[in-house]
Amino acid sequence: MKILDYTSLSSQKSPINQAFHDQGIIGVRGVPGFEDAHKAFLQSSRDFIGLSNEKRSQYTPPDSYGRGWSYGIESFNNITDTFKGSYYATYPEEDAKTPNIWPDKDVPDFKKNYLNLVKIIFETGKEILPLINVSIENLSSTARMLYYGPIHNPKAVEWCGEHRDHGLLTGLCPGTYYLDGKKVPQPSGTGLFIRGEEIVAPDDVLLFQIGEVAELVTNGAVTATDHQVRKAIGGYERYNLAVFIMPPFTYAIESTLTKYNDRFSPGVSYGDWHQRSYDKYNQT
């Protein structure tokens, strides 16, 4: 994985494009405020997970698991992962069709620490997109705190099956592991894998992956990142935050690629593309 210094991003257009095309991922070191924001986010996330099931469930909306907290109910390719938890939020918040849900009563600093980290990742992503020749205004994002609970059964499904994100760009924190309440190194053979290669990122490095829309609008100059998250057996917990950066739902996608013709048609709105992509991975 190519790791670039934040202060030199604007002069690294060619290496960034080459890395995204060849590996599907880059790391960025030295993003202002990232390390402290990540530590604060992890503490708030662990405080939330430490709540009782009854308290956490108060932040699960009855209408959708696309906002607020959910655990063990999401399906991918018709397989339900009973060990995965998610806490979703829209950023900027004013873009949310329905209001974000926050555990202000039980974890008062959760919202502040969550949104602070999301903002840093989102703004860094907005700096990277023009470097891959993607210039779209009024970007927004869906952020997702990911919590992978302890697994002891080797036959359990992977934490996240192989797939590609369908937006523009995904910002990721390094996966952080805990065992018996203590932070531990990433167990070998677990965590994020991209095109079959294990990714181990230092704590001070922010990661970015390519989404399918970026591949489409650049006509394949960058390639969407095939990735999965492989489980750790033996009581490990894994925390992460993903920020899925996307165009407005009214944005018309134009491309000469035929790779995604199962969902893509010239001029399709991002909103329709989003729904088609969701339906593909949740076919019954």
Task: Give descriptors for this structure.
18 strands; 284 residues; alpha+beta; 10-stranded mixed β-sheet; Jelly Rolls
The number of E-state strands comes to: 18
Largest sheet entry: 10 strands, mixed
What is the CATH level 1 assignment?
Mainly Beta
Architecture (CATH level 2) name: Sandwich
Task: Give the amount of beta strand, in percent.
Answer: 25-35%
Q: Return the structural class.
A: alpha+beta
Count of separate structural domains: 1
Rg, Å, rounded: 18 Å
Return the average pLDDT rounded to an integer: 93
Shape label: globular
In oligomeric terms, what are we looking at?
single chain
Number of helices: 6
* Amino-to-carboxy terminus distance: 37 Å
- Helical residues, percent: 10-25%
> What are the segments in which pLDDT stays under 50 over at least 5 consecutive residues?
none
CATH fold-level name: Jelly Rolls
Return the string of H and E elements.
EHEHHEEEEHEEEEEEEEHEEEEH
Q: Name the CATH superfamily assignment.
A: B-lactam Antibiotic, Isopenicillin N Synthase, Chain
Question: TL;DR of this structure?
Answer:
The protein has helices at 13-22, 34-49, 53-57, 110-128, 212-217, 270-281; strands at 2-5, 25-29, 68-71, 75-76, 79-80, 84-91, 140-148, 160-163, 169-172, 176-179, 182-184, 191-194, 197-198, 205-210, 227-230, 237-246, 252-253, 268-269. Helices cover 24% and strands 28% of the residues.
Structural description of this entry:
The protein is an alpha+beta fold. It has a single domain, classed as B-lactam Antibiotic, Isopenicillin N Synthase, Chain (Jelly Rolls), CATH 2.60.120. The protein is 24% helix and 28% strand. The protein contains six helices and 18 strands. The strands form four sheets. Strands 1, 2, 3, 6, 7, 9, 10, 11, 14 and 16 form a ten-stranded mixed sheet that branches. Strands 8-15-12-13 form a four-stranded antiparallel sheet, with no helix packed on it. Strand 4 (75-76) and strand 5 form a beta hairpin. Helix 2 packs across helix 4. The protein starts with a strand and ends with a helix. The mean pLDDT is 93.
